[in-house]
Amino acid sequence: xxxxATLIIDGQSYEYPxxxxxxxxxxxxxxxxxxxxxxxxxxxxxxxxxxxxxAITFIDGDQGILRYxxxxxxQFDNGPNFIEVAWLLxxxxxxxxxxxxxxxxxxxxxxxxxxxxxxxxxxxxxxxPPMAILSAMINALSCxxxxxxxxxxxxxxxxxxxxxxxxxxxxxxxxxxxxxGLPYIYPDHKLRYVPNFLHMLFSQPYNHFECDEVMRDALxxxxxxxxxxxxxxxxxxxRMVGSSQANLFASCAAGVCALWGPLHGGxxxxxxxxxxxxxxxxxxxxxxxxxxxxxxxxxxxxxxxxYKNFDPRAKMLGAAAERLLTSLGxxxxxxxxxxxxxxxxxxxxxxxxxxxxxNVDFYSxxxxxxxxxxxxxxxxxxxxxxxxxxxxxxxxxxxxMANKIARPRQIYTGNVKTDYTPMANRNSTGA
Length: 431
Ligand code: SDX
Hints:
globular; three-stranded antiparallel sheet; 17 helices; binds s-citryldethia Coenzyme A; mainly alpha
């Protein structure tokens, strides 16, 4: 690969450096393109456009590779817990025992919400979408923790990150409790991250929810596998908002909104609805696949902008779902339907030609359902998992491009110069 790219416009040659990443990815650095040529590039959906360099996560979509700070995600199966991986993503290396304990203690110290925030939940209808509450309440943290606004120094940033990672769990639990008309359950400092979350979701004032190891490990792995995914829609949103020097809470609240969409994090809810419809209406999986091929339906949880081989997370979550159901002594007909859809689609030319494989959302809902988490909370759980990635990218953006606001260009296709017509001179239809 040469180290420059040559562009010829109107007979004039322009050279641009080719940047090569640590895994051999190549990018043409066009920072000077418009100044030199007057042209910009056009790439709707940014499928061919890099917005930044990043050292956090590496994906090779053709090989089905996903690594967090260089560590293949397969090595997190039955290994560290979610908070250790969160630390790795945010601070760039695995924490020492002391660092991990200190961070875990900070999470404990900040698990509670300001009592003033609790009253906000009462203002939401019980039917309010939990993602709307999550985004609103993460933003509201800016009102209760002004000391976290700028995160200039490492210690302030570290505390803001710990506060947010801890409180997102409490906000999610309280949103669920409010929707059920149940009393809020305070966090229990004796419990670690995942058991404490399940405690706040499912305990009663008179009955402490006991999370067994299998449930704890399944949810830890699910959160780890959602923790980062380089420049996906919601992470790019966090970086975009953070580039204006908006604070960490506001930037992550924007990430929640982007993740909500059914083409992104909202897909895990759509997968469950799809599997449930197939089950309830006795639709043959073969028939549903035909509907997806004809465009009448979408095989939710299938396909990915980057993975054109397989999504390694889908493989690990599929196995984790089997393990969890077996250990709980349960069968789930939706898992059987999912397996059948996968088997049919992976042999069908429509999906093979378009390189459509199960993605992270295809099996995650089966695990969450087995844990007793309601479908409308699935994307909230995705957000809890993705938060460390958002925080890591927000910080990297702040450190690498402190004062450079992200501002893409466009190709204008609207009216050329037009004069104003006074109302009296316009015809009645306004055409
Ligand atoms: C996530 O970016 C990330 O990293 C995201 C994520 C992360 O961790 O942050 O991995 C999480 O968002 C996973 C994706 C969850 N979304 C879904 O499962 C929704 C269903 N999948 C799709 O809508 C779609 O596959 C996307 C959005 C995921 C990817 O869309 P692309 O790459 O823009 O592909 P496309 O929409 O241009 O489709 C290409 C072709 C089309 O057919 P043709 O027009 O060529 O005939 O493939 C077809 C599409 O119709 N197609 C599907 C399909 N996905 C694409 N056909 C049926 N079922 C599907 N799921």
